[in-house]
Amino acid sequence: MVFVATNVTLLAGASMFLLPKFDPDEIVSLMSEATLLMGVLTF
Hints:
The chain is mainly α. It is about 40% helix and about 0% strand. The protein is built from two helices and no strands.
């Protein structure tokens, strides 16, 4: 699924934020610049 999201993002000419680890504070600070949030589902 990650590759599909990556390909569509690049095809649309959009940009991506790739973070080295899950950091809630950084994610919240980047949300104002983002239009989509892709996350990993865990159970």
